[in-house]
């Protein structure tokens, strides 16, 4: 679909990194150990893409076929742990982990930004891959939304929270809008080797989500049922 065949993989890997960062912070917030944090980070970063690939028949799914996906998720998790716990040492592992858990709330803003960036990157990469499999623009945008939100659903379920996509927060809406915008731009040739449409859609999706969080925008909630 685009002149640059490396663009879908590049966007996917960037999305994996951002999603793993958000997932690692979620694990820290719940006080999980190192293995638990890694599980949450990997599930949240690879889950959406695996669902997308399975739905469009792109098997084996990229996250299993390409070693770079897991390596990126692992690297992102390591970055978060190093960033939040510079004093971590083998001799004082328990104490260091307790300190790390206590400080994790300070990094909520980073987690929100990483999650918003995940939506933008995966919405575009998912839509692009669906277009490459000859889906119409609207259906491709839906696949982009699944890609963007699927990992977040896995993350929230694993940490025993109601998934954001099922709450009042505008979560899936920015992803769908970004995917649809990208699909329309791509369909009408608004590309520079695929990059221009991608950058615009990613930026607008991420900004939409961040503004929604900042302004506390929510979807309408029906009245309580007696």
Automatic annotation (TrEMBL):
InterPro entries: Gly_transporter. Keywords: Cell membrane, Membrane, Transmembrane, Transmembrane helix. Residues 10-83, 113-185 form the Glycine transporter domain. It is a multi-pass membrane protein. The chain crosses the membrane at residues 6-28, 35-55, 67-89, 110-131, 195-214. Belongs to the UPF0126 family. This is Trimeric intracellular cation channel family protein. It comes from Catenulispora subtropica. The lineage of its organism: Bacteria, Bacillati, Actinomycetota, Actinomycetes, Catenulisporales.
